[in-house]
Structure formats: C-alpha cells, structure tokens
Amino acid sequence: xxxxxxxxxxxxxxxxxxxxxxxxxxxxxxxxxxxxxxxxxxxxxxxxxxxxxxxxxxxxxxxxxxxxxxxxxxxxxxxxxxxxxxxxxxxxxxxxxxxxxxxxxxxxx
Length: 109
What we know:
The chain crosses the membrane at residues 20-42, 49-68, 80-105. It is built from 4 helices and no strands.
C-alpha cells in the first residue's frame, strides 16, 4: 500500500491532468500507516485483538478498493464496478469505527 501510494503520488505530480490520483495516493499512504498501527496495537493487546485485526483488514480492502477504482478511472476511463469508490470509502469509515470499538473494549489479562 505504501509503495503504491508513493507511485501514485509521483504519477499525480508528473502526469497531465492526474489530479484524481492525489486522493488515491493519500488513501493508500495514510491507511498503510493505519494498518501498521492497528496491527501493533492488537498484537500488544492494547485494543481488542480480533476487532483490531478486522479493522486492519478493512483498511487494506477499503483503501485498495477506493484507490483501485480511482486509478482505473484515470487510466482506463471506467471504474472497477458501479459505486466501488464510495463502497471503499464507507468501508474505511466502518473500519475506523471498528478500531474505536476495539480501543474501548476492555483488554484481557
């Protein structure tokens, strides 16, 4: 996710009319860090482990769905499927809420 985010950032900076790629790059870069953080918190039992890992998987799936749709629209002229980017965005919101629930859940031990 991080590498793809950097590549899309470069493409947006050097490509003609590539402004759409900025949002795809941002989603990938930001959520790559969020995945690392969520997994680290879950592994150390700072958040509820199963919910924290589920949130991390949600970040990966959702950011990939959003960025993939935006990138495909830029390069191919069509998206992955109807409402792919909004579905990815909605799943990102749900994943952040899941991570908040994981943080509020009491630690075991």
